[in-house]
Amino acid sequence: MAYSRWTNSVWYTFGMSKDGCGQPQKRSDWYFKIFCDSLETIGGFCYDDLKKDIDKCLLAVKNDVNPNAKPLITEKEINELKTYMLEFVFEIERDCEN
After folding, report:
1. Residues 6+ apart with CB under 8 A from 49
2. Per-residue pLDDT averaged across 47-65, rounded?
3. Does this model's pTM top 0.85?
């Protein structure tokens, strides 16, 4: 399930299994994948990390932005990413029992 795409966002985000294989059955097996040209190393977060502290995950994203990237990620774009993260958590909780 994709939450954002390149055509309308600086983010390309989607949910997948942590191991990259098959459809996860448990909440803890889900991973929120993030692609952005301005990020250096972060590839995403597991469901458990997002559920525990989304703001900490967003801070990690902010700290991972390449300072030489043009244009720089804006606070509006960080807030946009947060909406995708929240949607991901909501859908996992709705669709997975544990």
Report:
1. 56, 57
2. 94
3. yes
User: What strands, in cross-sheet order, belong to the sheet with 12-17?
Assistant: 2-4, 12-17, 30-35, 44-46
Output phi, psi for 68, to 5 deg.
-95, 0
Q: Which H helix or E strand runs over 4?
A: strand 2-4
Q: What is the pLDDT of residue 39?
A: 81
Rounded CA-CA distance 50/70 in Å is 27
Query: For residues 57 and 43, is the Cβ–Cβ distance under 8 A?
Result: no
CA distance 8 to 29: 28
How far apart (Å, rounded) are the C-alpha atoms in residues 39 and 6?
14
Number of residues that make up the chain = 98
Residue 1 confidence (pLDDT) = 65
How far is 56 from 87, CA to CA, in rounded Å? 17
Q: Percentage of the chain with pLDDT > 70?
A: 99
